[in-house]
Amino acid sequence: MTEPVENFATRAAHAGRAPLPESLSRPLTPPIYQSTVYAFARLDDLDTLTPEAQSYTYYRYGTPTHAALEAAICALEGAEAAVAAASGLAVISAAVLALAAAGDTIVLDRHAYGGTYTLATAELARLGIEPLLVDATDAAAVEQALTRAPRPKALLIEALTNPTLRVADVPALCALGRRHGVPVLVDATFASPALLRPLAYGASLVWHSVAKYLGGHSAAMGGLAAGEAALVGAMHEKIVRFGGCQGAMDAWLTLLGLPTLPLRMAAHSRTGQAVAEFLAAHPAIEHVYYPGLASHPQHALARALYPAGCGGMLAFDLRGGEDAVRQLVARLRLVAFAPSLADVTTTITYPYVTSHHGLPEDVLRTLGVGTGLVRLSAGIEDPADVIADLAQALAPLD
Ligand SMILES: *Cc1c(COP(=O)(O)O)cnc(C)c1O
Fold first, then answer.
1. Ligand 1 atom closest to Cα of residue 92
2. For the segment 120-178, what is each residue's pLDDT rounded down to a tens digit?
3. Sequence spans of domains, the chain
């Protein structure tokens, strides 16, 4: 037995902190770097720190786990650069703060996710960045907003909107943005890079709420944005300054989710399509919103933009309003009521009392959110079992 040189408290403090030896092997799955700070051999090394040097100092600026995740999303999106943040809303905040200041305007789809809508109309507006709300499926209205003086600093759109699954014509909107010199920023959370890659159409930035399909297992929180290096660099600065870094555990869990993304999206799309077709033919259902259905007003556009499938998100109007929804939730066995989306299991939510709660009636009408509207996130189960559960829950009471 070798006699330790240091005292016990010193040995306890330093235990397990040896640097990794040069090794012939590597961990097959990426490791997590949870350390909040990095140690340097020489004082002068701090002065020579550059992003290219691949050195790290303090967690809020980024860790190797975040760098691995950012490199992974760059590969999936075909992007120059990427940045991770604490949440989807943190990357949206960073993007707008990187591009706009007090006195500026941004153009936002009025069908944007509720959190994005509130961020823009309550918080960014309070900082002097005025959101101009448009219907992104109305090209003339978008163009009118883009040509206002002063010129808006960004056009923010969603690839597939929540909850009524409107399809943004991403190539056309990117062309419009380019023509008027306004960067187009795309929330592709509902699509994921397995189904749509907006940078290829000329978007300046694409982002995702990691809690949804990228993480995919309802365990990781975060936001990931990818796009033009200058914009991403400016966003990173905002994230560092405002303190919006992602937790390393969340970045690591996201990394573990990414390899199965294409497999999961294929299964989500298959279940989504099958469930949408079943619901569309069901007498208890008034209307189904799913871009993969021929009845969807933008079905042709969806087929062109989403050749690999339209994903797992759909919505439907249930006859009988709130009482019918309450009964559906109580009778479902396999399908859980859970106000988020993109889990591997099928879930439903009720926008009228969750994401859109308390909005004025006229706004709800514009957004198509009625008392019978249910949003469904199709999982990766065998579609037959999800359909059987919905069938028993929708069957008339004897
Ligand atoms: C959930 C969600 C967001 C917000 O992301 P957070 O990670 O919850 O901040 C933004 N856009 C869409 C489409 C979402 O579904």
1. 10
2. 999 999 999 999 999 999 999 999 999 999 999 999 999 999 999 999 999 999 999 99
3. 43-259, 261-394
